[in-house]
Model the fold of this input.
Amino acid sequence: MAANQDAVAIYSRKSRFTGKGESIGNQVELCRAYIRTAFGDACADGASVFEDEGFSGGNLNRPGFRRMMQAAREHRFRAVVVYRLDRISRNISDFSALIQELGRLGIDFVSIRESFDTSSPMGRAMMYIASVFSQLERETIAERIRDNMHELAKTGRWLGGTTPTGYASQAVRTVTVDGKSRRTCKLRLLPAEADLVCEIYDLYRQTDSLAGTEAELLRRHRKTKNGRNFTRFSIKGILQNPVYLIADRDAYRYFMEKQADLFSAPEEFDGVRGMLAYNRTDQEKGRATVYRPISEWIVSVGQHPGLIPAGTWIPIQESLQRNKAKGYRKPRRNEALLTGLLWCACGSRMYPKLSGRVTAEGKSVYTYVCKMKERSRRSLCNRHNADGNRLDAAVVAQVAHLKEAEDHLLSCLEKGKGVYAGRRRESDRRLEELRRQQTALRRKLEALVDSLADLTGSTAALPVKERIETLQAREEALQCRIREGEDGGQTLDEAEFDRLRRELAFFRKSIDGMTVPRKRAALGALVYRVVWDGHGARVVLQGTTDGEEAAETPWGEDSK
Done:
């Protein structure tokens, strides 16, 4: 299929907002001027514009770019015009793959600053050469940042960011040999929190399990620095953090064997101070934080007291690595119909857990388990699990046999449509606000990273590094909230909702012929939530409140 011969796309990107220079608006206007000359006024006025502000050129994981490539695969335009080559990517492999894909789609690529055009062989060759230099520039910046981290590691100072449990950040002023005053930071021990950290390490040694440690902390009502319940992820973060490791001889041998960049002499491992590690994580927009291998860490002895001897810390790292393969894996095929709808009476969500067995009809056997019950090992919730197959069938039967089924279903759908749409609009509004906050944070981060590269060896690098660590933590938390908002609930558009309304008028007849995803969507259009009390379930319909329109599912023997 040929690309639309009357349409052209414009792509613009800038890492951060500055209000001057090659802004998004300036790039778009310059591209329009080029299109007007090369393709005509009609193409310039009707050009599709795709923008990414607050995203670096290090990779192609950008929302505007993804939308443009989807439009390209649908052959909505014949050419992509950019102001400058590095607006697309500074990575040679990404750029090469992009040009090849556009070539397969029959779409030209034009960079007006370098006067490159892939419609000619020379233009394609020159583009590849220029992209090599773009990647060289990016790698040079990354190397300068790493060199700066090396210099900072030699000092053993705390560089800021989220302060680990057990410590507080304390400002210290020192005077350099040239008489200048310099502000640095070090970690100050908080005895109560330090005792909690030691308790967590002791519990893991006893249980050899993150889940077991989490359950015991919940039973003991231990809270994080922010007053929340501990999770396996927050516990693992504490157990893996080398800040607690006492710098003794075993710690020195461990990092030497792991081939870390070690910036402390053997005599500095005095058995008192703790460790600091830089370059531990690889944080990239749009994905979870990746922990680098220890061989890539930059390690030094800190100026703070350590808490956990190497004889304890090192075996725990080995245990965490062993247990990693045993971790729970969410089943790829989920036949449970009440996923996202079922709640325990304790207020926690319930999720399906496969048993490995199948029914006589060949369907997977599963139970619904309260998340709080699992996490707390029954200490905070001890209700019976729900037989998933029976509960799903009971809820479907209950909905299908409502009094005056067809008229009642239509009435509930019409009533619930406005409520459902309102909830969705509110959810979309919250997601949009979170995305705006994330974009603003990313702009600030890009600006700070760029400035850090120019401050190698400068005392001004320290506060910049502190700010980067703080903003990275905030951005990661925002990303988690956005992901939860995107994954939560059913998302039916108006056309789908109307189609379901027609089908659900004959729910009893059509439900058996639906696929599992369609059944789940159909129930989601009718049912607001299902509440399990350990013996039976209460179904709350869309457009109603918990006490207004609920149906009790018939239940016989308790499900264990």
Notes: Residues 487-493, 545-551, 554-560 have pLDDT under 50 and may be disordered. The two ends are 58 Å apart (CA to CA). The chain has 17 helices and 19 strands.
